[in-house]
Design goal:
Layout: H1 3-14, H2 45-55, H3 62-75, H4 90-100, H5 103-123, H6 132-142, H7 153-171, H8 174-180, H9 195-200, H10 207-213
């Protein structure tokens, strides 16, 4: 089983993050633009106001985004079947989440800064100036909590949060849904209780009623009733 499969199991078993909201003073606002990646369908004016406010703000700097783009690709790279976390827009998701849950902001910004400081200590260069192997050597120090040394505990805490946000963002995106094989609810035709259930409880349909009520080809027709409460066939 590869890393991607492990992440699938972890995400589907734990159901990802519980995404918390925040409050705003305004309630009457314009709808969030469709191209922002959020739908206003079924959302209250208060929820739309929150989204609009958060989408109008920017938290991460360009340098921080550069590091995020690299890190999410390391956590969930593309493979022969699916795109990467970057392809799925995970950095944008993380940007939204740290604004929606301010408690994440210090941990994320502090963690990104920690990478630079640790890289300077080890290689005398900031993180994104390192070679690929040098970057991975730092990530290996913080990606496995059971093996990490006390000296890098702050890096471990940061990477744990980043990994959780990355998997949540990825597996709630279209690319992630396709990777999981998740199709959600799909319309079908109800043609009565299955035969094996009827046999188990030793019951059956009255043929006259079955012909009257079980009409899959008319499932889109609105039922009509007479004044006595009888279905009009």
């Amino acid at each position: 089983m590869n890393r991607r499969e492990n992440l699938k199991l972890l995400f589907t078993g734990a159901s990802g993050f519980l995404l918390a909201g925040c409050s705003v003073e305004e309630s009457a606002v314009e709808e969030v633009p469709v191209n922002a990646g959020f739908s206003t369908s079924g959302r209250s004016p208060e929820e739309i106001a929150i989204d609009k406010k958060l989408l109008s703000e920017t938290f991460f700097t360009e340098k921080e985004v550069e590091k995020l783009n690299y890190l999410v690709e390391v956590i969930i790279p593309a493979d022969e079947d699916s795109g990467s976390a970057l392809d799925a827009g995970v950095p944008d998701f993380i940007e939204f989440m740290v604004k929606d849950i301010p408690a994440y902001q210090t941990r994320m910004r502090g963690g990104l800064s920690w990478l630079d400081n640790h890289a300077l200590d080890r290689f005398d260069k900031i993180f994104m100036e390192l070679s690929g192997n040098e970057r991975i050597s730092i990530i290996d120090e913080i990606a496995y909590p059971d093996k990490a040394t006390p000296e890098v505990i702050n890096g471990v805490k940061f990477f744990n949060l980043l990994r959780d946000l990355t998997t949540t963002g990825y597996f709630t995106s279209k690319i992630g849904f396709d990777d999981l094989g998740y199709v959600g609810n799909r319309p079908n035709v109800w043609d009565g209780v299955p035969e094996h259930v009827l046999e188990k409880y030793k019951v059956s349909y009255d043929p006259k009623l079955a012909d009257l009520y079980l009409k899959p080809d008319q499932r889109g027709v609105v039922a009509q009733w007479d004044n006595d409460g009888n279905l009009i066939g």
